[in-house]
């Protein structure tokens, strides 16, 4: 039994100065966590109980799915991370240290390398696969801006799983098993979430989804169709464009457009000087970039910006991507800043990438590749040929859902899980092969799957709290029942004690507020702040042989005879 | 259900080259752990199951004792450890690192500072105490010689508790509660252990005991009385000497003893030249040391060495202790190397420390403080006065038990737990005070208590293994029953599967060897190596509707009807 009289707990009435988000504010105020350093937190008894319940749910669901639990150190030698180049790639995000002999170590940010090497050490045949193994373990990332309390910390607990298969079909099955195990886990934890298509990005894999818990203060932005449920990371949002059905237009006309290096100035000149009625979306923006030091143009409608993060995520094979600088224009004198058009791409030495909206047959006003001149009737497929379509334009609320064509919204969320078809990158780098049926070595294909276990405490708090405090789903609350004894006499305390014992005998966990000196008001406020679902008040109603049972979520109250309390709560 | 056909496990027939002790050898061979770097290990599925069972027993016993679980980060800022001077004192044993901003951090080797600060942050009154809090957490020490597998690693898991009390009487009660909780824990884990008096030593506390698990390859040496059960760390062993009842002797006589700078040569000269019948124990050895750069002599009977570790542990207040060097003799010309005696201590500027055997009234042959001269009839209390008695002579098997005076033995063991009355050192350094009844601030007194949780896996393996493999107590075995199906037909596999399901339905954990390709011999050897207590063989006896149940510990075998298996194992 937990007793408020002896519990290591002091609730705070005021918000901590450094807390930006509700979960951080309330977890500190309710005495669940304490800050040790930037992005580094300690758990007090109530917080650790909730943390452990979440950890147990995660473990049970992984075990149920048939995944095997292992455990790696957090302190790891450099060599495996050098073999995959991540020792360098991680940059300053990696905590690095040396031991007394001067050997290099790191604090593991994620364990792909170690899992790959473990399987390589034990297994050697296709018969040993498929295999899915996991750990629940402390991870370290030296975040440039640790924030939001335990949501983005520098020391945190992750459940990371890895699957190992002989072929792509096997990987897909392992991936789906993890996907289902994640659904089961988050459902049990009482989290609302969307499964969001994500880019495989820098990890070099082929398929990836994120589990995002919607929350107004979340760090992640994603696209959601409220009608059909389509959800995607902004990077992974697919642009669906109806085939172009415009009128046929005449040949390109070049017009004098002095001092119109921007879309706004171009539109103004067309409408004011030429009496046209165009908007920015009738113009074509040609954004010049250097891709691995070769000039490329990315074409988007004039009313949209290029989203460099989206572009980079979708532009496979390009390592270094940056906007054109003055020096680049100087080196490429045919490219006239502010007046570039795609119609002379070959002559200009430009490779053309385009947003899907720049579709076959679409007609544009764009630069004429000469100072103070623009061209109209420039038609895609006739006057210029796209080398490669790439999702690169900014995504906006109101854009078409690629599934049902309704208007999507842009929503915020906390990432609580990520599932990922890694493919053969790590197995290749570290030499993980097995012999196939013919006795030939094949490189194993892998998946990696993560749940932020400590972060889930905050995500649940964000989604379930209200103005007066935390409000835990029963499965993860620090206890099942919070009993408050009030008054100056012994009787309510004695009755509360007996009810607590009776409930414990039935397997319920009880937090008993047996403090003699605290006022009833303080105790009620603490109970609301801590957020256990069932609150029993043992006080005034005792004169009628009754106690009050409050429901934290609905605020519903009922008076129940002392003799009926156990019956009422144990159903 | 665990299945050998899919388990991440490859047992090894050969001992790993780097394994010195049985637990290391067998835990690697049975696929429980794998080495990642010096003193850094990963847990494979079977090993992690056993580890987690031990962790759970420890947690349950701590909770039962009313201690509250909290959890600290492993990555800690430097400042608290500077306040207590441990940032410097730990020296190269501490893993140190810097974050991206250049701030200093350490990987926690133990958390006294953090616990002290946590309580300081929450509590302020004597009414809040006593308090005992604990964590089960990963610790880091950069051991100069990591060895014996997980027994002395650089990353390991400890349960560390800390108690907080207003006064010494409270500390004693908290200490005894921990002592009992440790007894309950180790008893449940099936460990044999002795509770051994230990020195508080460098930690600056007042009382300390170690839980030592006897084991021939253990790193710790301790004294044990098999008759009365007295047990002590060698440093803490108490020398009990009967009051000296020797004859009165005449005045000091100085004798010519050329070339006798050693005890051996002195005894030879006395017996051969003077016709005496003495042994080394009749002579007095005066060992000169510099204690904080002041010369001292430590007096022990001539047949014993000074044990510098014992001396240092018992010599409170001395920071720097070292043996005399030639340079020291040169600076103190009155001290004649090989011929020092205590009778002129004042004139020689020597402070005299002595082993309790150099008791009041005892008579000795010793140096005469002149080259080639010794003195006899030198009587303690008459001819020289001991400034301070100190436990300093080497301890030997056969020495008297201080309780019952039987001969003690010297035994080896693994330290599995340590309980410690810290006192006020940390609270003082970090300013942890509470207001007492009169409203005056008092410094809190603390205890610290540790159990090596990951080490316990190895300690249990050391104490329970036999020639053929591991041999787990039921409470910590990776499963309750190991079922081996043999043969080429489907039937034994089907029966084994059914038995496994029936046992699981009764709540037993089953490891099923369902491998079709492995021979019966390989399977039996694996079962013996893994060390689960109940092994069911489903094979030949099936012709009579029977299976064989083997007991791993006793090797007892019995044939049981398939229909009776569940009844036989679930009792």
From TrEMBL, chains A, B:
Consists of three domains: the N-terminal catalytic domain, the editing domain and the C-terminal anticodon-binding domain. The gene is proS. Belongs to the class-II aminoacyl-tRNA synthetase family. ProS type 1 subfamily. GO terms for biological process: prolyl-tRNA aminoacylation. It comes from Candidatus Nanopelagicus hibericus. One of its GO terms (molecular function) is proline-tRNA ligase activity. The keyword Membrane does not apply. This is Proline--tRNA ligase. Its EC number is 6.1.1.15. SUPFAM superfamilies: Class II aaRS ABD-related (SSF52954), Class II aaRS and biotin synthetases (SSF55681), YbaK/ProRS associated domain (SSF55826).
């Amino acid at each position: 039994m937990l007793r408020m009289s002896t519990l290591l707990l002091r609730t705070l009435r005021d918000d901590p100065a450094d807390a930006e988000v509700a979960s951080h504010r309330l977890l500190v105020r309710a005495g669940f966590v304490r800050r040790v350093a930037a992005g580094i937190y300690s758990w007090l008894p109530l917080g650790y109980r909730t943390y452990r319940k979440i950890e147990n749910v995660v473990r049970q669901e992984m075990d149920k799915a048939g995944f095997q639990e292992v455990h790696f150190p957090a302190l790891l030698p450099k060599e495996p991370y050098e073999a995959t180049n991540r020792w360098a790639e991680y940059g300053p995000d990696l905590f690095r240290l040396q031991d007394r002999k001067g050997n290099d170590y790191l604090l593991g940010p994620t364990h792909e390398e170690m899992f790959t090497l473990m399987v390589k050490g034990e297994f050697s045949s296709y018969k040993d696969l498929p295999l899915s193994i996991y750990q629940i373990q402390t991870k370290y990332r030296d975040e440039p801006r640790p924030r939001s309390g335990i949501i983005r910390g520098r020391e945190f607990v992750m459940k990371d799983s890895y699957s190992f298969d002989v072929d792509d079909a096997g990987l897909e099955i392992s991936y789906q098993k993890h996907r289902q195990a994640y659904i089961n886990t988050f459902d049990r934890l009482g989290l609302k979430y969307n499964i969001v298509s994500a880019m495989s990005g820098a990890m070099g894999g082929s398929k990836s989804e994120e589990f995002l818990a919607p929350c107004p203060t979340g760090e992640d932005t994603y696209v959601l169709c409220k009608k059909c449920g389509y959800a995607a990371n902004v990077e992974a949002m697919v642009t669906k464009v109806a085939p172009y059905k415009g009128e046929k237009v005449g040949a390109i006309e070049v017009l004098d457009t002095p001092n119109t290096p921007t879309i706004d100035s171009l539109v103004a000149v067309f409408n004011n000087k030429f009496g046209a009625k165009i908007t920015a979306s009738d113009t074509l923006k040609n954004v010049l970039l250097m891709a691995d030091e070769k000039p490329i143009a990315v074409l988007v409608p004039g009313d949209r910006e290029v989203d460099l993060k989206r572009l980079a995520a979708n532009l496979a094979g390009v390592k270094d991507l940056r906007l054109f600088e003055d020096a680049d224009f100087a080196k490429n004198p045919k490219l006239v800043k502010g007046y570039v058009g795609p119609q002379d791409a070959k002559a200009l030495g430009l490779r053309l990438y385009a947003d899907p909206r720049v579709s076959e047959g679409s007609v544009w006003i764009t630069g004429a590749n000469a100072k103070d001149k623009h061209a109209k009737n420039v038609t895609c497929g006739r006057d210029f040929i796209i080398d490669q379509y790439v999702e690169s334009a900014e995504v906006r609320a109101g854009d078409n859902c690629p599934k049902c064509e309704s208007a999507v919204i842009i929503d915020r969320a906390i990432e609580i899980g990520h599932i990922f078809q890694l493919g053969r990158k790590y197995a290749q780098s570290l030499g993980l092969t097995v012999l196939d049926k013919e006795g030939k070595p094949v490189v194993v294909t892998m998946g990696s799957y993560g749940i932020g276990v400590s972060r889930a405490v905050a995500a649940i708090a964000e989604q379930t709290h209200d103005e007066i405090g935390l409000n835990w789903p029963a499965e993860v609350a620090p206890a099942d029942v919070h009993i408050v004894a009030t008054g100056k006499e012994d009787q309510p305390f004695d009755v509360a004690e007996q009810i607590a014992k009776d409930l414990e005998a039935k397997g319920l966990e009880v937090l008993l507020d047996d403090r003699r000196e605290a006022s009833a008001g303080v105790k009620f406020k603490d109970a609301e702040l801590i957020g256990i679902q069932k609150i029993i008040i043992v006080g005034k109603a005792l004169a009628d042989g009754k106690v009050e049972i409050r429901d934290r979520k609905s605020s519903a109250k009922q008076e129940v005879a002392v003799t009926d309390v156990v019956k009422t709560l144990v159903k």
